[in-house]
Amino acid sequence: KQEVTQIPAALSVPEGENLVLNCSFTDSAIYNLQWFRQDPGKGLTSLLLIQSSQREQTSGRLNASLDKSSGRSTLYIAASQPGDSATYLCAVGRGSQGNLIFGKGTKLSVKP
Amino acid sequence: ETGVTQTPRHLVMGMTNKKSLKCEQHLGHNAMYWYKQSAKKPLELMFVYNFKEQTENNSVPSRFSPECPNSSHLFLHLHTLQPEDSALYLCASSQAAGVGETQYFGPGTRLLVL
């Protein structure tokens, strides 16, 4: 059974710091891996999607990497801003119907 | 706004009540999903509909009954719920149900069962 773990559960950093969020999964047979952010009272917003054949994806200050063989992914946030404060969720895609298995998330707080 | 709306945003119901959650997407997508997010547990997929057909039921109890009358609307009918069913219920849509499709989420309905 696929399990997704995110460490740390919570993180507080000062504004401007570069940071890394970690995601690990137990079964390397995945179709893709996605990172989402969830803001209080709002749904999830997709940040980056990495296909199983890819090693990384970049969008602005965000960079996500994928190492299938070791069952790991990282989300790198450069020059963090208070607006980056949210819960970040990692999800692995399995099954032909786009099923996603989520981790519990990392709650990020960026202090001004 | 992601183009996926959910109503109501908050719902309180007794264990004997019957209620329905509604999801509507304005993105022209063909796949819709229901997820459950309980406190301190990961987000869990409940149902998948692709072109109005249910393609996935993740061992969800029968007290949850989904309905997809067309590709733009998805309902979750609730009856005889238990307090442990209290959670945030999220709807999502994608162009189709398949590998590599980005899912767009609604804001969720926060449900409290008394």
Characterization of this structure:
The complex is a heterodimer of chains A (112) and B (114). Chain A has 112 residues and is mainly beta. Helices cover 0% and strands 59% of the residues of chain A. Chain A is built from no helices and eleven strands. In chain A, strands 2, 4, 5, 9, 10 and 11 form a six-stranded mixed sheet that branches. A five-stranded antiparallel sheet of chain A has the order 1-3-8-7-6, with no helix packed on it. The model of chain A has no long low-confidence stretch (mean pLDDT 93). By secondary structure, chain B is an all-beta fold. Helix content of chain B is 0%, strand content 56%. In chain B, the strands form two sheets. In chain B, strands 2, 4, 5, 6, 9, 10 and 11 form a seven-stranded mixed sheet that branches. Chain B has a four-stranded antiparallel sheet with strand order 1-3-8-7, with no helix packed on it. The radius of gyration of chain B is 13 Å and the shape is globular.
